Structure formats: C-alpha cells, structure tokens
Amino acid sequence: MGIFSIFGKKHGHPAAKPAADAPPREQSDALACNTEPAIDIVRETAANERRQAAQATALKIDAIESEMSSEFVRPIANSGVAKPAVPQAAPPQAAPPPDTLLLTDTILVAPAGEAALEDVSILEEAAILFADGQAEMVEHLLKDAIDADSLGSASVTAWAMLFDLHQISGNQAEFEHLSIAYASRFESSPPAWMSLAVPESTAGLLPRAPAVPSVVFSGRLDASIIKSLEKARSLAEKHPAIRLEFGRVTDVDPIGCGLLVRVLNQLKKSGIDLILIGAPELVKKIRSILVVGRRDETETPWLLLLELLATMNLESAFEEASIDYCVTFEVSPPAFVAPRNKITTAMEEPSATAGDTDVFIMPSLIEGRADALVSTLSNFVSRHNPARVNCAALMRVDVNAASQLQAGLLPLSGDGRSIEFFNVNHLVAVLLNVVGLKSLVRISTRKI
User: Fold this and answer.
1) Where is pLDDT greater, at 412 or 448?
2) Whether the Cβ atoms of residue 369 and residue 277 lie closer than 8 Å to each other
C-alpha cells in the first residue's frame, strides 16, 4: 500500500479512474482487452468451419473411392469366344474396289455413300480406342462388326485390324481361330502367324520404348478421374509396370488430388513399376493453387504435391515443400521416403538410325510428347527424297502423337517430296488416316 500511495502522490493522480476518463492509450489497451475474446471466438469459428469442410471433403473422397469399382464399366468378355459368322454360300470377292483397304495394299480410304461412312466410322472408332490402349474394347467392336457382316467393302479392313490386334497381343490361339473363319469366308488362304520381332540385321538400330499399358488423365483433375483410376488399378493387377500420363491435365481440385494421392500410394505399395509422364507439369499446376499459410478446405493438394515429389525421388524439393506444409497446417513435417519400386518420369525418345541411312526405323510405341521423335524424323525427311520410314516394329501410336507427326511433316510434304510409311499395321494405318497423315504420306500396310 505504501508503494502505491507514494507513486500516487508523486504523479498527483488518483489510484484509479473510470475508463471513460482514461488517456487514449489506456482506452485502446482496455478496448484490446475487451476485443481479444471476440477475436478468439472468430478464429475458433473459422477453424471449426475449415475442419468441417475438410471432413466433408474427406467423406466425399471416401464415398467416391468406394464406388469406383461399381461405376467403372468393363467390356463384357465372351465366355465362349464366339467366332465370326461364316455364310457358307458367300462367294469370294474377286477384286475389291480400288478404294478398299487390302490386307497387303496401300490405304486409300473410304467407299462412298452413307452406309460406307458408317462402316468407316466403326473402323475409325476401333483405331482410336486402340490408340488409347483399349485393346479389349477394340476386339469386341471388331468382332461385332464382322459378325454383323454389314461392312461391305470395308469388311476386309476389319478382318485385317483384328488379325493385327491378335498379333500385337501375342494371342496366337485367337489368331488361328480367326484364320479358319477367314479362309471359310473368303475361300482364300488366311494370313500366317508371324513374329513381330525385328530382324537381327536391324535390331541394334531400333530405338525402343517400353510397351507398357497406359492411363491418360486429361482436362480437370477432379472427381471425374475415377474411371481412369479404376483402369490404373485394373492394369496394375495384370502388368508389372504401367504408365500414367498427366500432360493433358489443365488444372486440379482438392477431390481429384485426394483420389489420385490414394491410388498412387496403393500402386507404390503393390510394388509395380511406374512411368509418370507429365509429372513435373502436374506439380506446377498443384503449386499454382497453394499459398503458404493459407488453409483451404482440405490439405489433399499438399499431400499430392508431397507424394509426387517423393515418387520422383526429389528429396530437396520434398523437404522445401514439407516445411511449407507444416507451416501452413502447424503439424510436424512428413519424412521423405525414397520409392522402393522403379519410377521413371520420362520415356526414352528414339533417335535416327545410325546404320541404315536410307531408312528411318520407327519405335514400337509412340505416346505422349513425341517432340524428339518428330524433330528427328523431320530432319531425316528433309535430307531424303524419297524418305522411307519402316514401321515394322511400330505397334501403337496414340492420337496426340499421331497429330504431332502430321503437324511435323506438313511443312515437308510439298515440292514433289515423296514420303512413305511402309510395313504399317492396319490399326495404326487407320489412325493415321483419321489425323490426316494420308494426305501427306503414302501409307502402305504390312503383309500379315
């Protein structure tokens, strides 16, 4: 009491004053004390709202994931593998019209008329499905078309595409069954089974790309990716490696990130090898929606970012992102764990053939970004006239890569220059027709 009374007398102030008479600084301090509880209430309310939003998003991801298998529609397998119907009385076709695609001839396209256009559209659909890796769907589509026997002059092309499909798939038993039906239908010798291996003389010159099944993600990475994820799961059960392509993803949202990060974890734990195409670009798109210190409705984009960086074995980038993550959500940073299975983020691009300078040899698979291949092929074509491109080993081209080939060769197609793709399988040949390459290049299908 003595101390306080001394200070009170020294400054000439009473021991206490009403808040209304306090100096401005004291008033502000009192106001701050009064408003602190209100600020805490606002902060707690906002935190509760974020937690509820995060829980709702997590529940939505759980619900979508649990329904993935039931929503994904797989092609119905033929239990008895019905063989094409063979009308015994049908005479052989002596000479198909010149615009028909023959088993060993050059593609020239379409018969005229509405029915013919419908027939060709079936073949084009099959070629596009095959380009997307949907071999089972292609088989059912071609078998149904042959069974219906309504393709007219395009029928021979359908048979040729199905023969090629069995050859590429290595299904010799189905190839032999189809050969019997073909001989009965056309009363001529069927094509013989042949190995797709490249002759030893050119094997060392052939640039190769792994023939692995692919899943392509395009557009917005959101709840609509469930079918692509289900396909990835299905392929992982049957193959030692799969490829996931993200180059066509335009943007991302939390639900899509949550679904993808779960499936990536499952695939890594299964031990299969992964080829991630466009993963660095996907990382950039995820970073574009993140702000350090800003807590959104869910942390799933951050978790996908960290999962991709760990999957790509980028430890330094992972550590930086994990610090930003723990600052934002006030949690301990996750530990970096290097992938135990083989993960690659880019395909080996083919180069020009070194030994045979007169022939360019295509790789077995052309997918995704084909810039290096297109550049090398364009250089070859610019230095050769005629320019001959051997496609004997080429099994599949996706639609995007086929379009890149067309765009790359367009500037070189004039001035009397001759470009030929030969030994092309019929599935690829029809696809190259679809993208317009037939107007630039002479496409000769291989003997099968």
Assistant:
1) 412
2) yes
Q: Residue 282: which of 362, 353, 221, 348 has the closest Cα?
A: 221
Give me the mean pLDDT over the 416-434 stretch: 92
Per DSSP (E only), the strands in 150-257 are 214-221, 241-252
Report the alpha-carbon distance of residue 389 to residue 362 in Å, rounded.
7
- Class of residue 322 by CB neighbours under 10 A (exposed 0-12, middle 13-18, buried 19+): buried
Q: Among candidates 384, 381, 430, 434, which has minimal Cα distance to 410? A: 381
Architecture of domain 214-344: 2-Layer Sandwich (3.30)
**pLDDT-derived band of residue 435, with 50, 70 and 90 as boundaries?**
very high
d(CA 373, CA 401): 10
Q: Which residue has the tokens 């996750």?
A: 334
Q: Is 415 left (phi over 0), alpha (psi -120 to 50) or beta?
A: left
- AA identity, residue 173: A
Q: Into which CATH architecture does domain 359-445 fall?
A: 2-Layer Sandwich (3.30)
- CA distance linking residue 307 with residue 138, whole number of Å: 34
Residue boundaries of the structural domains of the chain = 114-203, 214-344, 359-445
Runs of H (alpha helix) within 187-333: 200-203, 226-238, 254-270, 279-287, 300-311, 315-329
Asked if domains 214-344 and 359-445 share a fold, the reply is yes
**pTM for the predicted model, two decimal places:** 0.45
To the nearest 10°, report the CA torsion of 156, 159, 164, 165: 140
CA 302 – CA 329 distance, rounded (Å): 10
